[in-house]
Amino acid sequence: MSANESPAGRQPTATYDSAFLKACRREPVPHTPVWFMRQAGRSLPEYRKVREGIGMLDSCMRPELVTEITLQPVRRHDVDAAIYFSDIVVPLKAIGIDLDIKPGIGPVVEHPIRTRADLAQLRDLTPEDVSYVTEAIGLLTAELGATPLIGFAGAPFTLASYLVEGGPSRTYENAKAMMYGDPELWTDLLDRLAEITSAFLKVQIEAGASAVQLFDSWAGALAPTDYRRSVLPASAKVFRAVEGYGVPRIHFGVGTGELLGLMGEAGADVVGVDWRVPLDEAARRVGPGKALQGNLDPTVLFAGAEAVEAKTREVLDTATGLEGHVFNLGHGVMPSTDPDALTRLVEYVHTQTAR
């Protein structure tokens, strides 16, 4: 089932006619919808206050706290969609992987996966493993009403990169060494991660998420031939697993200009574009039948209102004629961004694109 069809046997939800979901389905919209990756996070003083003294992974497992953090940017910025507050390693932690998110570093894995025996660490994810997600999404959808909630997960390649490297990497030397040197082990690793990711997305959709985004944050480190052979099949498996729910599926990565067509081919309804490729060129690379999301450079928000409006106008101009466009940044909100700049940006996009 495509995102253009109502879920079989189900009544349209309160969010079905929202600008965000209409844009994802490539239908006419009252204005270009806006949301921001990392909109619920460190740029907001209210976020820093409620997170004070609470570790990141612990925060993700407290339904009432997750609800409050997810709602904060909706209240402040009037964005057209909320994104569920979590982290891409949450499902890995939930199945027992010994990892932690270290401040200033990121996810650190105690026992990296380097051999076939290490795959035993990756058991199936069950809804009971993440019952706090189901509870939080129930609380959120009750509060959000007609505002859609986006669920998300990390894509198999990005999760594999963390697991094999043991933490963040600039070179992915261990992950790529496995991909090139032991392709059978690599395929089995990504296939298992695709199962876990699919299960995590299903929990979110069944709890009430209106759309899902698959973050392949580090896929830009790959050449197209390697992506097609060694990564695309696992991502496609995830998108197929949730296709029957009829919710829009978004695919995003950083530095993926050369991969845009392949990322759309993996099965997404909406392809996220970072700031390096203009949207009209991105549309040519992706091909017809897909909406696009993006793609203002996050650093523009530090340049002052006049510059922000000028660069936003450029993005909107390159989006003219697209089948569907969701305005977003080309990556996440940076922690030191002025929240008022984001609020003004939402208002500007809404005003400039009102139909």
Number of strands: 9
**What helical percentage do the residues reach?**
40-55%
Mean pLDDT: 95
**Element-level helix/strand string:** HHHHEHEEHEHHHEHHEHEHEHEH
Which structural class matches the secondary elements? alpha/beta
Structure description:
- The protein is an alpha/beta fold and 355 residues long.
- The protein is 44% helix and 11% strand.
- It has helices spanning 19-24, 45-51, 56-60, 63-77, 90-94, 131-144, 156-165, 173-181, 183-207, 224-230, 232-243, 260-265, 279-286, 305-318, 339-352, and strands at residues 82-83, 99-102, 106-109, 149-154, 211-215, 249-252, 270-272, 291-296, 325-329.
- Helix 14 links the parallel strand 8 (291-296) and strand 9.
- Residues 1-10 have low confidence and may be disordered.
How are the SSEs ordered, and which strands pair?
Elements: H1 19-24, H2 45-51, H3 56-60, H4 63-77, E1 82-83, H5 90-94, E2 99-102, E3 106-109, H6 131-144, E4 149-154, H7 156-165, H8 173-181, H9 183-207, E5 211-215, H10 224-230, H11 232-243, E6 249-252, H12 260-265, E7 270-272, H13 279-286, E8 291-296, H14 305-318, E9 325-329, H15 339-352
Parallel strand pairs: 1-4, 4-5, 5-6, 6-7, 7-8, 8-9
Antiparallel strand pairs: 2-3
